[in-house]
Amino acid sequence: MSDEAxxxxxxxxxxxxxxxxxxxxKVTEAWLDFRRALASALVNLPDGAELELTLDPxxxxxxxxxxxxxxxxxxxxxxxxxxxxxxxxxxxxxxxAAIGELIALGWSPPGVVNSDQRFGLxxxxxxxxxxxxxxxxxxxxxxxxxxxxxxxxxVQPDGAREALPTLAAARPITAGSPGYTDHHIDLSSLTLxxxxxxxxxxxxxxxxxxxxxxxxxxxxxxxxxxMVFVRVRDDPPLVDVFSPVLTDVSANEHLHVxxxxxxHRMPIGRLYCIGDTVWASVPVFGRDFQATHLMLAVQxxxxxxxxxxxxxxxxxxGKRFFTDTDTPTGDDDAAAPPSPAPNGDDDHxxxxxx
Length: 354
Description:
By secondary structure, this protein is an alpha+beta fold. The chain has helices spanning 23-43, 57-60, 96-105, 128-142, 192-203, 253-264, 291-316; strands spanning 50-55, 68-74, 77-82, 119-124, 151-156, 171-172, 219-223, 226-233, 238-246, 270-274, 277-285. Helix 1 crosses helix 4, helix 3 runs antiparallel to helix 4 and helix 5 crosses helix 7 (291-316).
């Protein structure tokens, strides 16, 4: 889609139906894959081995906070620990709702299960499915991990990792390959468009060549009633994650003031109106490209666009991209609605980026 064409939405021609590429359904599928792999890993965790799963702070925008869980296999039992407030900086400590969620999931308060300042639980080693569900919901719903690809994991001792399956989209910590590797693909050797296609393919669990493209090469992603596009720019190198939030809107002073107010609350990104279309946009630097920055921008934009199109439609009318929203379905606890963010921000965890 050219810059000149951004004053009106173009009819996209996709390789695949965009309704089949709903990111919400893909994220749910990614969490299900992660939970299944984790259940298998827990059953096969050698006695004396330790598995540590952590939300990557460099990718999630949580600063020095280290949200994570640790699992140990000891004498036929599995001991698990979850980070609590004493280990977190004040601005990222768990609120009462998050602590209540941990308790509801089955965690014992700190100190009860030889867990020092962490939450703890213990169960037989054979019950990996239940524990995997608890750990997955803790990382996703309580700690606010937007996608399993934002998780890094380590297994000690080193030889124990070979006995365990790869934990789906989560990234193993290996010497010499920090950060996102997409299962050992060297992104730095690819062009920016190839890097973007590789990352989006990994995020949407589809081969890069099968990504839904419009006639201008933009990647299209459905999110509820909204549509989000990912476009690669050459000069300067930039990846633009944007959405036509509303079309057929009557632009007036009240609308522009409202968009300015909403933009002012976004540390990065903007909302603006061109012609009769309201757009939302979040840029990602193409120079020294970081895959997790793109993944988080997409995650935020899809949630933001799907919320804003309903909110602004109620205030100003117009048309949303999709009028009929198909609600993704999936496994019961993997598809459960997220709890409030750990820091008390209940706005779909978007505060970590916007």
